[in-house]
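Order emerges. As here.
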Amino acid sequence: MANTNGENVISTQDVHLEDDRQHQGSFSGATLQIDGVDNQNGDEPGVGFRGSGQNFNRNRPGSTMSRQSVRSTSSRTSMRPGVVKSDSMTSSYFSYKEDSLQLAVEEGKKMMNPDVDGEVKGTWLLTEIDHWNNEKERVVILTDTSLITLKYHFILKRVVEFRRVMLHVIDTVAVGDFRYPDKSLMPDRRHGGIQIRWNKGEEPTWAQKWNPFCLTIPFMTFCHHPIIYNPKETETTTYNVDDFFESLIQCISNIYKKKRPGEKVTIIEGPIMIESYANLSSMLFNDSGLGFFRDRNGLCY
């Protein structure tokens, strides 16, 4: 795939609905469901609770490209305790430099198809945790019908990876704390996030799991961007995965009314499993922040 400048861009195959089989797998935890019926009292259509989880907050402002939101968006998803990013650490991120994120979003919009994606509903800068437990900086664009993620090279200022998932294929969204398997030697992450699945309860194949470069894994896992740990940015929606989560379920609810009336997508509040047992490479990768474009004492990568 090439962008408007003729540069090569890695792209996964768009994810579309293959069949209408109801998914079988689920997380352990409280669940709620989104369907296509406007029968709720809240301001988001077709959202109904099942089980516990009545603290589900539906009053977050929309995402903004500004540095500070006008309303508090204190994190509903747990954050790493005691972590603080100083101004100098925060300014080392190239994504934080003036107009860098706005430029990334505009480049992503050039690659979108208005007939397929519809209108943009929100944009965020988040951390994606891949199936090998590696943390990577991603620009996230939510539209009427699509979830688009970009790997944007904030130094060279170009899109190097473009992924699109159609919202109507998503069957499960989980929110909660990340957990490793019981026999894992990995240190506790001590924070949470969300996981978006379109696998209908089926696990990835062995070949997918053991390929660190696989781009066809049927789920995405996100958490807050590290910039949110700067005291000046804790209220900024752009880096807040909670704000993205709230907007995402509203868009899924709307598209289900049109594409899959009568069907439901499950939203689960509970632990999110990261299948990593003794991955030294991911520990080194994450500790050094290699998934983020930064100025590292004069070395920029």
Observations:
- The first strand starts at residue 10 and ends at 11.
- The chain has one domain: 10-288.
